[in-house]
Amino acid sequence: MCLAVPSKIIEINNNRAKADFGGVHRTISVQLLPGVKVGDYVLVHTGFAIGKVDPEEARLTLKLVSKMGDLSPSRLLRSEQRSKE
Asked: pTM for the whole thing?
């Protein structure tokens, strides 16, 4: 499954940017989005900004994702093991 996550651009240096994913900062490529600027919200997939997002849409999406909780494989495996006990 592929997932593109909204994030806010907080710093840009050439074709690289620091993006804020709900308090977690990652370096991403903005090479595919000429004209992107600090403060813009973008969709990030595999380390690349692939599209700009309306700030309200980004906020709503991040709110929904946070309600999903921790869906990491290790957490899901632990939950599965507990349910078998």
From this structure: 0.74
